[in-house]
Amino acid sequence: MSDASDADRSTELAELARSLVRIPTENPPGNEGPAAEFVHEWFRDAGIDATLLEEPDPDRPQVGARVGEGGPTVVLNGHLDVVPAGDPEAWSADPYEGAIEDGRLYGRGSADMKTGVAIAMLVARDLAPEIRSGELSGSVVVHAAMGEETADPGTRTLLERGFDGDLGVVLEPTDFRVATSTKGLAVYRVTVHGEATHASQPDAGVNAIDAARPVLDAIDEYDADLRGRGGSLCGGAFATVTEIEAGTESNLAVVPDRAELILDRRVLPDDDVDDVDAEVDALLDRVAAEHGVDAEWERIQTYASSSVPVDHPLATALRERSVDAVGPDGGVSEPWGIEAATDARNFVNDAGIPAVTWGPGDLDQAHTVDESIPLADADTGRAVLEDVVREFIR
């Protein structure tokens, strides 16, 4: 552990997280480059081997860093991209100012998840002397990944390029709860076809908006069926229409010949995406048979779900150490799964590496106006993570 006082450590973490928040990395478009360069230079200045990886997108580099060569290896994962901040006027302060007020760091990415990235960086640096001296036989890898918010293969690419290990911790904000399972997501573009005509003669064509109504009704029924199937540690499955687009903006007097729906289907660890595809296909076939609607679908985005045993040693250690640090309230002591999709899926599904999602901060702060994280919780998270990683790489 660093010789710095608790106050110095707290200030150090706050300033590092603040520096990351002050670098806008909105995705889309995914301008992670300046933040990746910052992280890479920080590791270089700390004497830690790091790579600025220009894959999978040369315009959006990411960082993999490693301390030590021995085993076992714990991988600490975070992503650099953030969702767009939206209207800056809606925020109490500039979303990229990194304001600190009443013990909280404010700004887009403060909770999701640049504070987690900062914690990973500092834990790796602070354990480096013990690793290099041989006191700790294992090693630590850090990911500062691109593209998590839009399912880009940032973390997967880092794992494939050798920044892998035996265990993984994805440092999303979970309020110290240990998520051993993550909910997945399949996004579908459903296109409903009609026949265009002038709006003065609507009966001469087929209004694709009207044709979409039974599709929407069928999706509501599908959602109700999913809710009745029961859930898992990470909650239940849902089917939600999140976007509808139809019409010709350039000519408002045209009955639309197509309507597009975006269907968000949440996927549980026991679900197979091929089976979900088949359910969507059957839904549209039924609507076609009953209502004569011509529709087709395309899956445009997939976040696989993932799961490891709730009593995996890493999960147990993080759970017990978190209870010691913050108490059992808020589900900290209980098995749990996260309703969001995280890059834990890349560890478990793509690389075969057991991984959990865990970190300080409240997931409800993610993607919100005035997003923030309590800095005291960040300090606690840093201490808990350092202790647990040290335990596993002895």
Features:
394 residues; alpha+beta; Alpha-Beta Plaits; 6-stranded mixed sheet; elongated
Helix/strand layout:
Elements: H1 6-21, H2 33-45, E1 49-53, E2 62-67, E3 73-79, E4 100-101, E5 104-106, H3 110-133, E6 139-145, H4 154-160, E7 167-170, E8 179-182, E9 184-193, E10 197-198, H5 208-227, E11 239-246, E12 254-255, E13 258-267, H6 273-291, E14 294-303, E15 306-307, H7 313-326, E16 336-338, H8 344-350, E17 355-357, E18 372-374, H9 375-392
Parallel strand pairs: 3-6, 3-7, 7-17, 8-16
Antiparallel strand pairs: 1-2, 2-6, 4-5, 5-18, 8-15, 9-13, 9-14, 10-12, 11-13
Helix pairs in contact: 1-3, 1-9, 3-9, 5-6, 7-9
Describe this structure in words.
With 394 residues, the protein is an alpha+beta fold. It folds into two domains: 6-182 and 306-392, Aminopeptidase, CATH 3.40.630.10; 184-303, 2-Layer Sandwich (Alpha-Beta Plaits), CATH 3.30.70. The chain is built from nine helices and 18 strands. It has a six-stranded mixed β-sheet, with helices on both faces. Strands 11-13-9-14 form a four-stranded antiparallel β-sheet, with helices on one face. The longest helix has 24 residues, at 110-133. The radius of gyration is 23 Å and the shape is elongated. The mean pLDDT is 97.
